[in-house]
Amino acid sequence: MDQDKPAAPPTRSRLTRLATRVLHGYFALSRGMTMGVRAACFDEAGRLFLVRHSYVPGWHLPGGGIERGETALEALAKEMREEGNLVLGAPPRLVHVYFNRQTSRRDHVLLYRCEGVTQSAPRLKDREIVEAGFFALDALPADTTAATRRRLEELAGRALFSDVW
């Protein structure tokens, strides 16, 4: 009869629980907040650049995390280059800072508006980016994320800026 009972899940040792608690405390103190950048990149024709990742659904504004020792503008240029072979035209303009609670309780996103953006070469598919390109604002892909659409409404002045991504 005892063999019909499901096995109890293994319990973690006191040492493992203590080490986990110490590490979580360390990360909370050493990395009190994480920050990333997103770019609303417009070309001379007013088209918006979007990317589709392999690991999350939908079309997104290009962007990513700010690494230790990196400025926000360095991260912005790096992400634009990596995700789309994009080159800045006019200096980017910081338009808003958002709390991104879907990622974590400590994540923030800086949104930049980038005008006159050009592409140095087509962005080829790889393991991270499966599609990328410029789109007219009235012809965005159907699965453009809700957050991306909200950011565009805010940028166009048709919605108030939210504090939450």
From TrEMBL:
GO terms for molecular function: hydrolase activity. Its cofactor is Mg(2+). Keywords: Hydrolase. Residues 32-157 form the Nudix hydrolase domain. Transmembrane segments: none annotated. It comes from the Bacteria. This is NUDIX hydrolase.
